[in-house]
Amino acid sequence: MTGTYPTSLGTSDRDTITLLGEDLAGSLMGKVGFGELALWLMTQRRPSPSQTRVFEAVLVALADHGFTPTAIAARLTYLSAPDSVQGAMAAGLLGGGSRFLGVTEDAARFLANVLAGAKQPPPLDDNGAWDALALAAVTEAKQQNKIIPGLGHPVHKIADPRTAVLIGIAAEEGLRGNHLALFEAIGRVHPQVLGRTLPLNGAGVCGAALADLGLDPELLRGVALLARAAGLLGQIAEERCRPIAMDMYRSIDRNAQYIAPED
């Protein structure tokens, strides 16, 4: 039995490649940036310059953050299998979870759920109403012993330098919406509930900004991985010319302390 398999993304014939209804070679190559294309592919609607700017700012914010577990995994995998760049890339991408990179998706989902439970979101300029909504959400999360995604960072203890910049870009482009407003309110009120002040982290603000672009939270870990793929490729390229993975391995191996198993 032969069926049909519909797609509105790409197709090709002997002479042409069509992508998103456009001639790839004639209309897109050299005329559309990769970030714009990625957002276009996700939504199947050509993004505006403002939407593209916010989206690309997110990609830049998440591309690399030093020797994170994802970067270390990629370098060590490349050390073990230098014939498999794809394996090293995959090893790093597989580490995108609830502690690293996955926070982008988790924060967007948390914010979306709070907004869905509200009768009607407050006006964007009504900080008091947003604070009340955020306070209720943070209080409920604490009562249920749940982590609030987007709060805290292992390195940036006072402020994540990406957060204010991305909020500013979204505001400049008229794309600061309900998710960012709620996220900012959480930053203002959470000390009242948690008894300590934590920074709004870059992964969380990226999730809020992407949700304000109308993207499904379920796709946002993919956006974080798209960004990190560029960083991992950079890590592997640097490992080729300035290798450190062997030193990482030897340092751990030579400093391992054997402890006999308990009876």
Task: Looking at this protein, list some descriptive labels.
3 strands; mainly alpha; flat; three-stranded antiparallel β-sheet; 263 residues; Cytochrome p450-Terp, domain 2
Question: In words, what does this structure look like?
Answer:
The termini are far apart. It is flat and about 55 Å long. The longest helix has 22 residues, at 220-241. By secondary structure, it is mostly helical. It contains twelve helices and three strands. The model has no long low-confidence stretch (mean pLDDT 95). The protein has a three-stranded antiparallel β-sheet with strand order 1-2-3. The relative contact order is 0.15. β1 (10-12) and β2 (17-19) form a beta hairpin.
